[in-house]
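Reader question, answered in our methods column.
A reader sent in the components of a multi-part assembly and asked whether the whole thing could be modeled at once rather than chain by chain. We filled in our standard form and ran it. Here is what they sent:
COMPLEX SIZE: three components
ENTRIES:
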Amino acid sequence: MTSSIQCPIPVPGVPLLEVHEIRQAYGSQAVVKGLSFSLAQGSIGCLLGPSGCGKTTVLRGVAGFEPVSGGEILLNGASVSRPGFMLPPEQRRIGMVFQDYALFPHLSVADNVAFGLHGANRQERALRVAELLEVVGLPDSGRKFPHELSGGQQQRVALARALAPCPALLLLDEPFSSLDVELRERLGQEVRDILKQQNATALLVTHDQHEAFAIADEIGVMHQGVLQQWDSAYNLYHQPASRFVADFIGEGVLIPGTALSGDRVETELGILAGNIPEACRNQRQVEVLLRPDDIVHDDASPMQAMVAHKAFRGADILYTLLLPSGQKVLSLVPSHHNHADGEKIGIRLEADHVVMFPRAEAGGL
Amino acid sequence: MRILKILFVGALVSLAAASACAAEVVVYSARNEQLIKPLFDAYSKESGVQVKFITDKEGALLQRLRAEGQNTPAELLLTVDAGNLWEAAREGLLKPVASQTLNANVPAHLRDPGSQWFGLSVRARTIFFNQQKVKPADLSTYEDLGSAKWKGRLCLRTSKKVYNQSLVAMMIAEHGEAKAEQVVKSWVANLATEPFPDDTKMLEAIAAGQCDAGIANTYYFGRLMEKKAGLALGIFWPNQQGSGVHVNVSGAGVVRHARHEKEAVALLEWLSSARAQNLFADVNLEYPVNPAVKADPLVAAWGGFRQNPLNVARAGELQAAAVKLMDRAGYR
Amino acid sequence: MKRHGWRLAATGIALLIIVPLAVVLASLFSPERDVWPHLLEHVLPGLLGNTLRLVLGVGIGVTLLGVSLAWLTAVCEFPGRRFFSWALLLPLALPAYVTAFVYVALLDFTGPLQTVLRELAGGPLVFPAIRSAGGVIMVMSLALYPYVYLLARNAFLTQGKRALEAAQSLGYSRRAGFFKVALPLARPWIMAGLLLALMETLADFGTVAVFNYDTFTTAIYKTWFGLFSLQGASQLASVLILLVFALIAAEQVSRRGLRFTQAGRHSRMERIILRGPSAWLASGFSALVLLLAFVIPVAQLLLWAEKVVAQDFDARYLGFLWHSLLLGALAAALIVAAALVLSYAQRQHGDGWTRAMARIATLGYAVPGPVLAVGIVIPLAWLDQQLIGAARNWFGIDSGLILQGTLLVMLPAYLTRFLAVGYNPLDSAMQRVTRNLDEAAQSLGLSGLAMVRRVHLPMLRGGLLSAAALVFVDVMKEMPITLMTRPFGWDTLAVRIFEMTSEGEWERAALPAVALVLAGLLPIALLIKNTDKS
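And here is the structure of the entire assembly that came back:
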């Protein structure tokens, strides 16, 4: 479907969004303490973290709703936020999908979507609205009012509305938090497809890692105002840079280990070989991260662990196992291996990556 | 609980009031409290009879009398104009009183021909002028205020006040509706500004020069001059060759269903007596109705004048016609 | 069983309004031959023109003032914002008819301003006439804008910010966002406030009397007492009531089908910070309105009162004050209770009938005081006759008046007149007490009265206090009904003011006026504390 409103094609080379060491505060309380990342055109980024880590503040800073007290934000190479200067949101060519959608209840769906289309004549507007409603899968809903739609439908209208004026950057604030779980995953995929199809550059903020995994190309894990790691989902999972990231992303346990010569580390479950990170080189005592997929069920293995708890997950069962030393580990096992609590089963270490941290200070790296 | 107590007390009081039939008279008064309280206090001291009263606008009082019917606690109706007394009589709310004292004390044209009400003080509604701009020789009659020479120089009070309604009613009685309407229209054409809500503001406007002449009740003039002595306001008695100055009365009548009729008549007679007349009239700078009583010296200093001898009851008879006439003439 | 109970209660309350209204409207069916043709030809056209002008003028005035001030104090930040947020409600304590006579005294030809200007100019000069349509509109707008201000402020506080951000994210500047989004969203609240203000305007008698401005109320009085025709007056009153119905219907139609509550949580409010000239403009504007609507009138009243206090102030004054306070308190208690019943009836059993009854019950606000008084007095008088007759026949007691001349006449009249004032804030608060809360309470073992006491009433506290405060102030300011139905010797401050102003003694009227304003400040303070959530 063609539209007479053409979205500009992104110019390669300049990253669309650059955030340099920004600091943000509410009153005297520092909320964001020096954060940097950048987003290339056409890529979808995500700030992931627990409530209160400051991710929404960063998003609102990029939008122009909150000022920065240190550092700089650049959109398309131009400085839009720095201490003492904040370009107003309406001049930034951003689009925003709010957590509660913020649809205008007194306007119809079509009028909502058309809201940001200044300077277009009525025909162009109608065409663009129809195009977007089709893209988000609500082609016949133009005449309806927001209160007549379900949560998922409202969210799609909000997306359509934000995309209609071809924003340079799309910002999404916990877009799925008010929807139920199955809807989330499905919509997550759909939203990613829509964004890619529209060549949109987007920054998403969420506390739900599954959402992040479904939608984003790059994810930044935030904790207490600081960016812990900015990486792909795979790397965050398999090569977490800090204790916090290891903890936050996926499941896993840290078991004690002793570093040996020759890039090896000894644990209760056996010896692992792999790259020893710099920080752990001269330590004897380390902690090794073991994910549930690192431990496989092997009846033939001499290592026995007792089932402390099992969580049925359909295709798999997540067993919480107790090693002879009392250390807990997790193991993800195909669910037809159904063992009871208290049973002893054989397990084996099968880790492709070695992730370890120096032993025991509280907190991250 | 408070509520119940008060309601209970209210009921008891009404019961008590009725059954005790103690020596007291209840008055419904359109005359303001500060004017009548000293009077009634004096009466109570003299006669030992308590006087209870409630004040309100005359129309509302009439409404209340009508609604209360034969259960009304009122004995005397006291108003500030004859029109409402006439209306009360017409509706059968008053009863005739045969009293030689009253007939002697109150001149015939100032009481009801059917003896249902009696005037107790006289107020003249006359012409006042700005002494710096107008000479008494320029003035002559009420009607003349409509002539071309007064264009843009006349001030009037609103037609909504009963005093003006009575004035126009008397004009209808004298000249008939057609001529009266002409006169009123000519007044309206000469107005310097919108009609005033009260006489005092109008008199002040005349003194300040917003207009040169106007029509007001004498006692407002008296009160104003007492407060601001230096004002350049003069008083003029029009129509002395013809019908005379328009007067009205503040008066009272006995309510038809009065329970203490004797006491009510006694109070009425006392109000018309020499003793009370000065108390009644002087406190408001009015003229006593009793011809044997002299007016307050301040009032007397304004000079004598001929009154319009038409019975003031006509003001009531023709009041409705007057209101309609003023509507037609655009006199607001 | 329970449902019928609620229905009955709602109907009973509505009857209190329907009976007087019916009594008045019944007069339409027997047009008096003498009076009606005259009214139709010479009076009605002027009245309709004047009323239209007044409604339009005051409507625009209160909307402009109320909405702009609400926006500034709810969403923006400027020097003095905190102070003005509550101070701009102070004019509620000042009756319009008091502001009226102060301004006429100040600005008329003989007033101090023009006198000084004439002296400076050395001769006559042209000055806008205060006793004109413009003057009435100005005074009433200054007196009534708080209704719109209060409600619009609530709307902006709860909805404005998020909608504005969404508009900004779509390319609209803050100013454009205000007109395109925040304002339309606040429309139902603004309209509700506007309706209250306009109903007050239509029912007002004291203010238009001071200005000698012909409206339905002045015509009703003149027809009733000048033409001695209660029938004619009732007929004019009926036309007025029909006009009010039309107003209400128009408001309803404009609301239909639109839902204005937004789903979702509200984020932290951050105000739009005004700087430089716009900040000073905001402060200046707020200060000017406060000055004109409250400070100047009160200052003049105090000056006048000081002159007469020596001669006029005595123990009787405390009596007037006491009566005013007592009436206000009793009426507030009664009306809040009735409003609560009505609101619950709608909540528990909100069918068409109950809703209709609730709507009707709040109409009394539009009926002018004297008309309502007549509509109440006549049926109550009839009832009284029956009771007296019964007392005589069954008990042999010659009782005299039982109901009339007691508070039993005044309180129902106040209920009829001011139910809307108590009902609106209470109903808004009731909306937030959702069904979910009831069910949660029930699952925890609470029901019935215990639930009302421990769950509902605490949540309704704000609404209850606002309702009580507003009713208290309105009843204290009320004059025509009090005048007509009060028991012997039961003068209130409002009655005193009337007695003085009707004799042209405006300076003496200042003393009871000051007392009235001071007495009204306490409930207003309560109201302010309650509504100021930001």
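What stands out: Chains B and A do not touch (no CB pair under 8 Å). Residues 2-20 of chain B form the longest helix (19 residues).
Send us your own complexes using the same form.
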